[in-house]
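just leaving the lab so this will be short. below you get a single protein, a line of residues and a line of whole numbers that encode the local backbone shape. id like you to explain what the token line says about the fold, in plain words if possible. thanks a lot i owe you, the record is right below:

…
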Amino acid sequence: MSQQEVNDLPENNLEVDAASAEKVEAVETEVSPEQARIAELEAQVKDIQARANADMYNFQKRVERETDNAKKFALEKFAGSLLDVVDNLERAIAAAPADSNQGLLDGVQLTHKALLTALEKHHIRVIDPTGQAFDAEQHQAVGIDPNTPEGQVANVLQKGYSLSGRLLRPAMVTVGQ
């Protein structure tokens, strides 16, 4: 084998290959201004995508919350109008004379109970503060009773109601002085 043939063997060309590899690496590590700008823009795109994803997630959660509230409180006006019916049934029961038709009174009481059960089923709760401390969040003071301890509810003139924790109507009360 001649010297030229020996030099052409792959194991003898290591110096050339190593030098070529260093040149390739040097070219690869040198970044042109265009490539740097491309990398910068790609980073900005990733950042904008991440923010857009976070905004979309927050938007979805807000829509879910608002939809839940809309469903929960859709009955608010309707329920408010039924409260007058409950009040009238309670007045009829309270005003019934002792010698009245017992069958009629039982019917009114059963109707009242059925209406309250239907309201409860739809998360409408009665606020009856009899004997409790006055709470301005749920009670509306319309009078003062000097014979009751201060801050205590003396009389409930009209019961209050809440719908899923939200006040529909405050209880009208007199408060001790």
Remarks:
- The CA atoms of residues 53 and 59 lie 10 Å apart.
